[in-house]
Write a structure and sequence with these properties.
- By secondary structure, this protein is of the alpha/beta class.
- It has 2 domains: about 35 residues, no CATH class; about 180 residues, P-loop containing nucleotide triphosphate hydrolases (Rossmann fold, 3-Layer(aba) Sandwich), CATH 3.40.50.
- The chain is built from 10 helices and 8 strands.
- The strands form 2 sheets. It has a 5-stranded parallel beta sheet, sandwiched between helices.
- The termini are far apart.
């Protein structure tokens, strides 16, 4: 092992070893860093950095203000179906890794809590420093089609890549739009790109599963169901109507 005498700004010279192409650092500096991180001040600084990063990721997530306070803890699970949906969400969070590629399909009636569950999952993952993006399908397609304008600062490929890169992409209101061939192709590019990169996607739709499969196409549904992807059907009455 190659060694040489080196120095740092704070301590006398020390012997450094070349390990895996890198020279070892000053041992006293390394120990001081460890001691600081173990101290209360170090722990607080680390917690502050974590909180700041989570706040940044939350802003980047683009969760609509109407849903920004939705968490898994505030989801009301009175019946068996709701309890199962909540349990699936917690399991999804606990099993989530940035390279798992596991997706969720949340479908069923309006106002049953699909978006609540999806946003609740996003909050949990953001707290774990995962990058999450929330968008409607219309918004996703629009962001890509806007690049067709000559004044666009990014290309179509870059716009699609922006939707492929996040650890989790939540696609809301799937099936609301007419679904032209161009829109379906863009949607396939996004979902297929995430599938190939083992990125997780949550699809939210008011359509029944048969209608959703017809809209998305079997290839897309197959990709969403691979790697342990799950379907959760929200088949209970609307929370909104009950609240009214």
């Amino acid at each position: 092992m190659e060694t040489r005498e080196r120095g740092c700004d704070y301590h006398p010279n020390y012997m450094s070893s070349l390990i895996a192409g890198r020279w070892s650092e000053c041992p006293k500096c390394v120990q001081e860093k460890i001691d600081y991180e173990m101290s209360e001040a170090g722990k607080k600084a680390a917690a502050d950095r974590l909180a700041a990063q989570s706040e940044y990721l939350l802003k980047k997530a683009a969760i609509p203000p109407r849903f920004s306070d939705r968490t898994l803890e505030t989801f009301i699970a009175n019946n068996e179906g709701q309890q199962k949906a909540l349990g699936t969400a917690h399991a999804y969070v606990n099993d989530f890794t940035k390279t798992s590629g596991q997706s969720l399909i949340l479908c069923g009636g309006v106002g049953a809590g699909k978006t609540h569950i999806a946003v609740g999952i996003a909050h949990e993952l953001i707290a774990r420093q995962c990058q999450c993006i929330f968008t409607s399908v219309i918004g996703a397609v629009r962001s890509v089609k806007e690049t067709y304008n000559r004044s666009s600062e990014i290309t179509e490929r870059e716009a699609i890549d922006n939707l492929i890169k996040p650890d989790l992409l939540i696609l809301d209101e799937v099936g609301v739009q007419f679904g032209s061939d161009t829109e379906k192709l863009i949607l396939f590019e996004i979902i297929n790109g995430r599938y190939e990169n083992r990125k997780s996607t949550i699809v939210i739709s008011n359509l029944a599963m048969t209608a959703l499969a017809e809209y998305l196409g079997e290839r897309v549904v197959d990709r969403l169901r691979e790697d342990g992807g799950k379907l959760v059907v929200f088949d209970w009455p609307s929370h909104r109507r009950q609240a009214a």
